[in-house]
Design a protein that fits this description.
This protein has one domain. The protein has a five-stranded mixed sheet with strand order 3-4-2-1-5, with helices on one face. The radius of gyration is 17 Å and the shape is globular. It has 170 residues and is of the alpha+beta class. It is built from six helices and five strands; from the N terminus they run H-H-E-E-H-H-H-E-E-H-E.
Length: 170
């Protein structure tokens, strides 16, 4: 293709990409925060969720904003320990309680067999993390979709991060 054709295609594709990253409404953010308060024992306002996509899946971290807040660190660790154990068993009911049953990526993750995904919990000095990894493309895509959905739904309390195992280092 020549340059004018490529430029025209890029312009035509812009509205489609803009729709794909449409912001979540304030009402949705409030709803998710309210539901989350019944599932996550830590205070959202005192913590940050970091979702880093990797070539094999992704890294979910929850950290405190104030490193001296040992109570919130303890609560983060309890929660991530609990959900990593549940996720290894294919139990993704807590994300469903917060985000709804139609959350992107969740259906594939619910149907993933234990040998198709590695879910590893690790404590951090200021919180904890869960590393999700797979060799199967559909599972990796589902993790990425699930991370995107969480970033949208937790927009006030979540950021996209980068891990040392970035998407570019396969």
């Amino acid at each position: 293709m020549n340059l004018p054709t490529l430029s025209l295609l890029a312009i035509l594709m812009m509205p489609l990409s803009a729709l794909a990253v449409e912001k979540v409404s304030e009402a949705r953010l409030d709803e998710v925060a309210e539901r989350g308060s019944h599932v996550m024992p830590f205070e959202l306002e005192q913590t940050t969720h970091i979702f880093s996509k990797t070539a094999q899946g992704g890294l979910q971290q929850v950290v405190v904003k104030d490193p001296a807040n040992t109570e919130q660190i303890k609560l983060i660790r309890q929660h991530l320990t609990k959900i990593s154990t549940e996720f290894r068993k294919g139990d993704f009911s807590n994300p469903t309680k917060i985000h709804g049953k139609d959350m992107l990526g969740l259906e594939v993750l619910r149907n993933t067999k234990p040998e198709q995904i590695s879910i590893v919990y690790k404590e951090l000095p200021n919180g904890a993390e869960i590393n999700y990894a797979s060799q199967e493309e559909k599972v990796i895509v589902a993790i990425h979709q699930w991370f995107d959905a969480q970033l949208n739904d937790h927009a006030r309390h979540a950021i996209s991060g980068h891990s040392e195992h970035s998407m570019n280092h396969q």
